[in-house]
Specification:
eight-stranded mixed barrel, 19 helices, five-stranded mixed beta sheet, alpha/beta, single chain
Amino acid sequence: MLRKLLAMAGSSRLALLFAVPGAIFLAVLLADEALQPGELGRNLLFVGGFALYLLVTVLLVRHEQRNRQKLELMALSDSLCGLPNRRALHRNIARDVATGEELAIALIDLDGFKSVNDFYGHSVGDRTIKEVARLLAELCEDGATAYRLGGDEFAIVTSGPLAGTILEGLCRRLLLRLADPIMIDDRALALGASIGLARGQASRASASSILLRQADVAMYVAKSRGKGRVTWFSAEFDRDRAWLHEIDLDLRAAFEREELQVHYQPLIDSRTGRVCAVEALVRWERPHGRRIGPDQFIPVAEETGLIEALGLWVLRRACRDALDWDGIKVSVNVSVAQLRNTQFPLQLGQILEETGFSPERLELELTETFLVGDPLVAGRNLEMLRDFGVGIVLDDYGTGYASIGFLRRFRFEKLKLDRSLIVDATGDAATRTVMASSVTMAKALGMQVTAEGIETEGQASMARTAGCDQMQGWLYSRAVPADELTRQLATDIAASSALAANLSSTSDAPRIARGGKR
């Protein structure tokens, strides 16, 4: 773009450079021919014309230089906030390569900026970017340079013997400053930042690209570890990313070859002891026989964008598998990416129509991460999902921020107590009280309660006493394939029928005896 602008400017200036003096010189010659002065007059006219030509040439060259400087400044500056841009960052680091000094770079990604754009519009978002840029410029007045790389990404670069120490100090000061809301008119905007740091010697022409990539990797690690923190790049991060890349490629291939499986873990009715629902859980066994746990490949699918396609596949498969499990509800986990997708309700409706599965038997499990981050969008999307008649379940309760107001606002049909709460409650009276209070609160709000991770009879008894409606865990069954679950359900039904017949015959015996006495 810069070359094009300079080329256009250069061609126009060259045209003026030759056209204007040429026209003046031609006018002088015409005047010379018309007036027919003496030899001295002609010499004076010639010298005057030549001097005028030189003057115009000098003025045009100076004008050209000023315009070129303006164009270069425009090409190296961010048009919104005025900070140097990505092109300037690469140019400046390349300039510092000759010094051989240590370089340190911070890549800053704002936490919560998307919500600002979603709730207040891009106009407020642009003003927020300008305010953050002003704040960075103030922090970097001495010994550092701030850049805007695009969107809500910024960078800070320092050089010298203490570059890393200086940079980390600046970044920690930035986090402290962002702990206070940013004021835009009367709006108090809560923002944070995830910051990745990298450093190295400026010894190669590609130093800027290498350091920027390393800082980017460190920034994503900072985000994954909870945001609002500063993380230095480590070589282990690259090894982890290489492994994740391998998992991503294998997972996509497995998905295309339909090597993934859906297993189902029963939920047991705490009163009857019978299976009343199942949770669909995706499983992956790689071709060489090594199993990869969902805790490993699900985050990879979320990061790479495969989670939406994978989630729809599990949902469709679960609805098909459960068609013949009369009276059994099916719970399917829904990712944050799916919930944010405005097309997901339509996709859900299409799957229900395509499979013929009753929406009243379907439960969608979600965690509070999405609900806390985007409460307005979440509330709207949940209402659209409820319109189909499906139930909404809050998973992993007891590990996050859910409060009474939170539960009342979103009106879940079921609450699932996280395994950690059950385990801790077993040996801790205070945690047991918290668990019992949570069950009582959920019941008061019209929700059913499921206790997850039940592994012992003691845990089952405690959950039953606290009032949990359903229990799920290895005490009852692991997640099993659909055909094995079908056999379990058939056995369960047969056992229940036998028990009912036995109870019926037992209850008739006293009546016969009493009748005989009478």
